[in-house]
Amino acid sequence: MKQVTASMAGTVWNIAVSEGDQVTAGQSVVVLESMKMEIPIEAEAAGTVEEIKVAVGDFVNEGDVLVTLA
Q1: Tens-digit pLDDT profile for the chain (70 aa)?
Q2: Residue 66: which residues within 8 A CB-CB, separation 6 or more?
Q3: Which CATH number applies to 2-69?
Q4: Where does the Lipoyl-binding domain lie (predicted)?
Q5: Please, which residues have CB within 8 angstroms of residue 25's CB and are 6 or more apart in sequence?
């Protein structure tokens, strides 16, 4: 199982994928908002979205798991 983690602390602004979606390496899966900037978080590897661990509006810390890929 692969994990997509937050690269910095921020608020989940948008979730660009749904469970069951196929993603490619480098594809944006979640957008965080921090200090009035939008930061896209990209999948490091291709896979299928297994579980979305956050919701829009959630605050996350650096290293928190956002999405798991199978």
Answers
A1: 899 999 999 999 999 999 999 999 999 999 999 999 999 999 999 999 999 999 999 999 999 999 999 9
A2: 4, 5, 6, 12, 29, 30, 41, 52, 53, 54, 60
A3: 2.40.50.100
A4: 1-70
A5: 42, 43, 44, 45, 46
Which tokens in the block code for residue 36? 């009035």
Domain boundaries, the chain: 2-69
What predicted TM-score, i.e. pTM, was given to this entire model?
Answer: 0.92
Neighbour order of strands in the sheet with 22-23: 2-5, 65-69, 47-52, 22-23
In a 13 Å sphere around the CA of 5, the CA atoms on its Cβ side amount to: 9
